[in-house]
Amino acid sequence: MTTAPESSSHTGPAIPRGQGGDALSVAAREIFAERGYHGASIRDIAKRAGLSLSALYYWHSSKQELFAGLMEDSVNDYVRTCDAALHACGDDPAERLRALVRATVDYRVRRRVESTIAARDARNLDPVHAQRLAELRESATRLFQDIIDDGARCGRFRCEHPAEARRAIQAACNAIPQWYDPEGDTDPAELADRYVTIALRIVGA
Amino acid sequence: MTTAPESSSHTGPAIPRGQGGDALSVAAREIFAERGYHGASIRDIAKRAGLSLSALYYWHSSKQELFAGLMEDSVNDYVRTCDAALHACGDDPAERLRALVRATVDYRVRRRVESTIAARDARNLDPVHAQRLAELRESATRLFQDIIDDGARCGRFRCEHPAEARRAIQAACNAIPQWYDPEGDTDPAELADRYVTIALRIVGA
Amino acid sequence: MTTAPESSSHTGPAIPRGQGGDALSVAAREIFAERGYHGASIRDIAKRAGLSLSALYYWHSSKQELFAGLMEDSVNDYVRTCDAALHACGDDPAERLRALVRATVDYRVRRRVESTIAARDARNLDPVHAQRLAELRESATRLFQDIIDDGARCGRFRCEHPAEARRAIQAACNAIPQWYDPEGDTDPAELADRYVTIALRIVGA
Amino acid sequence: MTTAPESSSHTGPAIPRGQGGDALSVAAREIFAERGYHGASIRDIAKRAGLSLSALYYWHSSKQELFAGLMEDSVNDYVRTCDAALHACGDDPAERLRALVRATVDYRVRRRVESTIAARDARNLDPVHAQRLAELRESATRLFQDIIDDGARCGRFRCEHPAEARRAIQAACNAIPQWYDPEGDTDPAELADRYVTIALRIVGA
DNA sequence: CATGAATGAGTATTCATTCAT
DNA sequence: TATGAATGAATACTCATTCAT
């Protein structure tokens, strides 16, 4: 029927006692990314982690909780990355936009896998986690929007449709995990520079 | 909707795509969009179409064929839209980019639902259909890339990283279905104008 | 661990198409009686009915619904039996008590298996069905109590503690399924006569 | 509670029944009563006792042994109660029946919870314990039957169907735990008097 | 064209139990 | 004494699919 070749045997030595939790997180990340939330079976996650199904349930109370934990970790990382970047720079809108784009590119490269999962499977979060994630997403949107609006108002940016500009910039950054190959492509710093240039052009800096 | 006879190799009776067949396509589009390929059950699709499960199997030989038909219809539409737009304009890279962006925005607005499905669930196509879809996707990429490369070479565009420019433009257009609300947002023509502006800025026209 | 020898292979010929529903009710009744609600596995019920697990779910939406259906059928039967018996007799308390005891004994003998299930597993009904069953149970209690109270008031019964009398009579009748063997024991009519005598003695008729 | 060393053959360390062991017995009694043998999980029992699952296995070698211990304790109590009552009275059948009913009512009130468990879940005992329990049950039955038969023979009771009389009396007593509320209902001594009256009427004393 | 009845493989989850410390 | 980590078999239930009519 579907594509995946279903290679289920796990690599590496048997997981040493007491370290099952980490192995599970890694395996879950991989399998959710490969097959999506509904396509991923908890059996296969346990198998790839080198543990029994029951051991998975010792560490995580449900598939949903395992999934939500992954998303939460990752999005908290993004929030921290943005905050740090913006705290370390001045008031100039161009400077601030530069910092925010760099932080975003950095995050999308570092957390390629989780970013892909979030982009495709956020709707499968239970209402409580979905709410939190939506709020954090919106707060990131506001970070971008405030900077662009500010730049447009004070004349630093020549930008007639700031909402579209913001959407274009975020969309461009968010698409990076879809194609970026950490082995073959340009290094993350150079990549960030290029996306900074694109962003500044979009807002008319 | 879906009127073409659609020869997508399957056993059983030929699929005339009338009456029941249409209701099924509509229902399938909605449910695949809401829940994703694995999250959607053909029982629910049949129910929403007001038909029995067995009736669904009269019209479509499998879940996969139903899904692939949807994707195929939609991507063929895109290809035709782009071809028409580019045939109707001259050689100037800016003019051609303008036409291609307009065609893309138009398509993403017209086919919002299928676009969302394709973005999230393309990996669930069986190898044969996945191959075709990938080729068509790549041909669209080439359309963009050729125009941008051309403009950069002849000096019409000031654009040092044409690959990144192309990715940014496509990503911005592709993200439209994620937020665009045909009721409340600006009309498609105005939207296309704005994305044309953004694209021209990105390539430094 | 536990007692049951787990004889799972089903007897008789394969179930003819279209008659699975009845076979399932019979099998469910048997297995719920043998092992209790939680001890009964839906797999074993399907197996004894000569059907697949999935066929069971075609007929019944859940274990709970299958179980509740059984109980509902049976208790409705009791209500009808009592109503008929009381409508067919006059006003004399002794005559009415005689009729009600006879109806109860008759029901406990006819519905031995369901009676046992209800006595042991009523708590496993979901709240909605549990409520209905409790109400019907209480209405039966009231039938007994009204007759006894009436007889005590008008002097036909010499009975100082009518509530205890009623409980004793009901308990005696309800215990019949625990020991009665339709093959070896006295026939139901004779049995009813004996319990009528006991009931009349308890109320001091 | 449960202080006796209780030699119920199991492997592992001897079970001194102190501290943790007691908490477990209490918790087990409650949970088995609430949910039945199969509905009760030893995880929940351990949790309610405030212990880990592994601690439960220190005190009890299996779920079955924990359950059987409860039943054994309780039924031994009944046997002792009956023996004491009958040893303390003379030869008159009415006097002996009075004593036995009083002992039974007393036990059903004192051991309400275990009585309920035994009534519903005796079938879940393993064969060895089930056998012992059945024997003790039968010996109690014989105590009742001998007295009634004796009374009938010597003319003290006017009782044509002594087996039915005995069943009715036992059923009435056994049903007490189903409705008796130690807070709100009559005190046990008064209750016993009323059941003595009922029993004497049933046998025609 | 359409349905009701059935299936076998798969789903997430819970069970009683054990092991190493 | 007690625990945290793990297991294999079972649980109720859903899946895409088929078949006889």
Q: Can you walk through the features of this model?
A:
Four copies of one chain form a homotetramer. With 205 residues, chain A is an all-alpha fold. Chain A folds into two domains: 20-60, Arc Repressor Mutant, subunit A (Orthogonal Bundle), CATH 1.10.10; 64-203, Tetracycline Repressor, domain 2 (Orthogonal Bundle), CATH 1.10.357.10. Chain A is 72% helix and 0% strand. Chain A has ten helices and no strands. Chain A starts with 19 loop residues before the first helix and ends with a helix. Chains in contact: A-B, C-D. The A-B interface holds A 1-3, 35-39, 119-121, 123-124, 160-161, 164-165, 167-168, 170-172, 174-175, 179, 194-195, 197-198, 201-202, 204 and B 35-39, 62-64, 119-121, 123-127, 130, 160-161, 164-165, 167-168, 170-172, 174-175, 179, 194-195, 197-198, 201-202, 204. The structure holds a DNA duplex (21 and 21 nucleotides).
How would you summarize what this structure contains?
Chains A, B, C, D: Keywords: DNA-binding, Transcription, Transcription regulation. The structure is a homotetramer. By secondary structure, chain A is an all-alpha fold.
The residue ranges of chain A in which pLDDT falls below 50 over 5 or more consecutive positions are 1-13
The secondary-structure class of chain A comes to mainly alpha
**Rg over CA atoms of chain A:** 20 Å
Q: Rough shape of chain A?
A: elongated
Total strand segments of chain A = 0
Rounded mean pLDDT of chain A is 91
Q: Given this structure, which CATH class of the largest domain in chain A is correct?
A: Mainly Alpha
